[in-house]
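Q: How do we represent a protein-ligand complex in a form that can be generated token by token?
A: Start from the inputs.
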Amino acid sequence: MKNIYDYTLEELEEYFISIGEKKFKAIQLFEWLYKKRVDDFDLMSNIKIDTLNKLKSEFEIGKLEIIKKQEDKDVVKYLFNLNDNNKVEAVLMLHDYGNSLCVSTQVGCNMGCSFCESGRLKKVRNLSTYEMVMQILKIEEDLNLRISHVVLMGIGEPFDNYDNVIRFIKIINSGKGIDIGARHITVSTCGIVPKIEEFIKDGNQINLAISLHAPNNEIRDKIMKINKVYKIEELIKVLKKYIEKTNRRVTFEYILLDNVNDSKECAIELSKLLKGMNCYVNLIPYNETSHIEYKKSSKEKIMNFYDTLKKNNINVTIRREFGSKVDAACGQLRANYEEAI
Ligand code: SAH
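Then emit the structure tokens for the protein with S-adenosyl-L-homocysteine bound:
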């Protein structure tokens, strides 16, 4: 059976037209699902019984089960069980500017970045749109709060699940739905160039973040397999096009790995690479995991890297360390859960 949370407002409008109903019914349905959070067709009192019966014969209202929850003072990490018993995680971060949810987009990941826990489990499958939407609905219900920001930085490569991810974004961005502003939604990719091209054509206002993690092909080849397919030059070229077309700023994520990519030379080379681009660099202290031998850079090295970028007029911030106590690095909670059982 189809799942109702898989459908955008436009698609539901088409559905209602196809069964000979007025298209505004789609708005009513959307409001029941996302404004009033009703998950039972029978409670949708302004929709006629025979329309509800048609809906019930075609769609189900999906569920998602929370199987583990770990809390630290400003982070709550969730593990969900999917209908086929695969597990995915989502991490809620409580900032002073709002509540930001890090959403997973796939079960496992095929990108194979050497420092990342998610890639140890090869991609099992893409998440459906509804499985992403439900991460938000369930956590809002569980904690009785509203999520103001969404980052697609959990397990998986969003641009390797492009269509479902774009429909997910449309649903959560819709004013008739969850209503999270486009500028409060960030999609993060390891750099699948043709999908960035497609993203440019789609012309939306979503923030784009790129996991760069190296200033040159030599280092990037070693830590990110995707660089063997799309070289840094190609990536930078498409991002310049993105900036030109959208007038938006690109975020570069850069994990600092001890003695791998954190030298002063690397910082200088990175400054040259990004010179004049409308961008900023988010330096990420590496979250060490027991399965992977990389070490995080020392505070001093992180500060030196930061200073070098600053001196070279690159906008730069250091990401606050969230959730190392609750295994919040990509894929860690799932990995540790599977080991414990
Ligand atoms: N596949 C997408 C989104 C998921 S990863 C991407 O590559 O952007 C989200 C971010 O977390 C990426 O920048 C990734 O490189 C980073 N990351 C992965 N493992 C990490 C760890 N152990 N510590 C810190 N950041 C990590």
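The first strand starts at residue 2 and ends at 3. Residues 129-143 form the longest helix (15 residues).
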